[in-house]
Amino acid sequence: MLSGACAGAVPVMIKMGIGGAAPPTTAAAISVTFGTLAFVVVEARGLRTLVHEYPRKYQASMLASGGTSGVAQLLYYIAISILSPVTVGAITSLNPLWTLLLAHVLLRRWEKVTRRVALGAFAVVAGVILVAIGPGIG
Fold this sequence. Notes:
mainly alpha, 7 helices, flat
């Protein structure tokens, strides 16, 4: 629940920060830098283990994850600079759909996409569409 509250507060805080004079790219860089520093402090031992003991293919996957995460953050900040936080929050709730599609394609051996999970993901999409076309948003 706390995670959801923090995630819900992020677009509002971003809009407040960008509402001044900061360009979205600068705001994203500051946010990602502080987030990275926090993770490094908390996970220093885990990072050492990752570098020395994990196979290279897993390290490459984690690096790719970090890269896509950075691009996602940058695009998120740009979207917040253009749209309302409510609209951006609704659009980013499409994550389950992307996760479902990518898990189905890339993780078939480990992850089963059931009919129930697929219906839930499409219900999220329907909700996003309702919010996005709702009055007074955007």
